[in-house]
Amino acid sequence: MNVRGIEYQHIIRRIFGEVKNYGREQIQVNCPKCQERDGLPEPDGKFNLEINTAIKKFHCWKCDEPRFYGNVSRLIRLYGSKYDYDEYISYSGVDFFNSKNNDEDIEKYIAPVRLPNEMILFSNMDINNKRHIEAYQYLINTRKISRDIIFKFRIGFCVEGKYANRIIIPSYNKFGDVNYFVGRTYLKGVKPTYLNPVVNKNLIIFNEGIINWDSTVYLVEGAFDALSFPINTIPLLGKSLNKTLSRVLKEKKPNVIIVLDPDAFKENLKLYHEIKLLYSDCPEKVRYVTLDGDNDLDEIRRLKGKREVINQIRKAKEPTDIDLIRASTIIGNNKKKWDWINIL
After folding, report:
1. Which domains does the chain have, with CATH numbers?
2. What radius of gyration, in Å, describes the C-alpha atoms of the chain?
3. Residues 327, 104: Cα–Cα separation, whole Å
4. Cβ–Cβ contacts within 10 Å for residue 32, how many?
5. What's the rounded mean pLDDT across residues 23-46?
6. Burial environment of residue 236 by CB neighbours within 10 A (0 to 12, 13 to 18, 19 or more)
């Protein structure tokens, strides 16, 4: 397993002592600023200082005024010796951010995702609480999600707090840590429909923790699409690859089937082409599905059942002449727009 930044984690441990999750890219130590501010003779033992060794950033969850964050090089320069700093520079090379980045940018990269404190797992719901039943009935009756899927994917809900009246669909990384979640309202007329954490999506693979890279991987748009075909499926949270997923696909090269919504025919072809370029030595591993009609996977499952979803997936193919003619009617004669499709 390639853990970025592992080569200098021993320096962090030498400076701060105990390190939580040592050997992973996201580690925690006791914050020296918190200790100084609170006048403590020893570290507080709360491990509020998060360090991402992959992107060389740190951020303390407790330090608010002023906030304590920045480059790992700064942290080592403040609390380590000259020897520590020189050794770190010999390993780390150039920092990911330059001095022009603001604190909001840094937090998007460094801050780990945490599920809402108010979240209740459906496995722990109170069947005598009307608000709990309201959330449950939305999934069972409106979305037609089975109990098995609800429990398997550890889906929950909130009745209070920032995510009140929302279904929470969590995602876990390869270490079993939460890396994202989708918050979808189950009440009519509530805006926004989706309320998700603000993070850099380039750094996450939704459902990474349950993906078998030796088996066929299915790429869909949203979390509910993934629940409609919950077999090694990754929601893109949009219509394009992020950098992390692109890197992993290029490295592992599993069979891939792309299933975007019917209104994303052009993006379907474009994504097919993009992954095919990553698979230069085995392009036959990449296929895509053009869904019939106007319904996405989630709507097909709700309206026609799981069997029809499977029937649609079985139509996975490479682009045909008819597909390219259809693409031409969408793209037109603009040469630049055709550049990505000419190699198909």
Report:
1. 6-110 (3.90.580), 114-199 (3.90.980.10), 201-344 (3.40.1360.10)
2. 23
3. 40
4. 17
5. 89
6. buried
Distance set, CA 89 to CA 12, 32, 73, 149 (Å) = 13, 21, 8, 47
Long-range CB contacts (within 8 A, 24+) of 190-195: 190/165, 195/162, 195/163, 195/166
Give backbone dihedrals phi and psi of 310, rounded to 5 degrees, phi first. Answer: -65, -40
CA distance 106 to 96: 10
- Tens-digit pLDDT profile for residues 107-150: 444 456 889 999 999 999 999 999 999 999 999 999 999 999 99
What is residue 339's three-state secondary structure?
coil
Q: Which two three-digit tokens encode residue 341?
A: 């499709």
Distance CA 48, CA 43 (A): 11
Find all residues with CB under 8 Å of 9, minimum gap 6, and list them. Answer: 19, 22, 23, 27, 53
What the block records as the tokens of 165 is: 């009246």
Computed from CA positions of residues 122, 128, 132, 137, in that sequence, does the dihedral angle turn out positive or negative?
Answer: positive
Can you give the pLDDT at residue 163?
Answer: 96
Cβ(277)–Cβ(342) under 8 Å? no
Contact 27, 53 (CB under 8 A): yes
Q: Decide if 228 contacts 289 (C-beta within 8 A).
A: no
Report the helix count and the strand count for the chain, using DSSP H and E.
14, 12
Angle between helices 82-92 and 9-16 (to 10 degrees): 160
Q: Name the pTM for this structure.
A: 0.68
Q: CB of 167 within 8 A of CB of 158?
A: no
* Distance separating alpha carbons of residues 266 and 331, to the nearest angstrom: 8
Classify residue 245 as exposed, middle or buried by CB count within 10 Å of its CB (0-12, 13-18, 19+). Answer: buried
Residue ranges of alpha helices (H) inside the chain are 9-16, 32-38, 72-79, 82-92, 103-110, 130-137, 147-152, 223-228, 243-252, 265-278, 297-304, 306-313, 321-331, 335-338
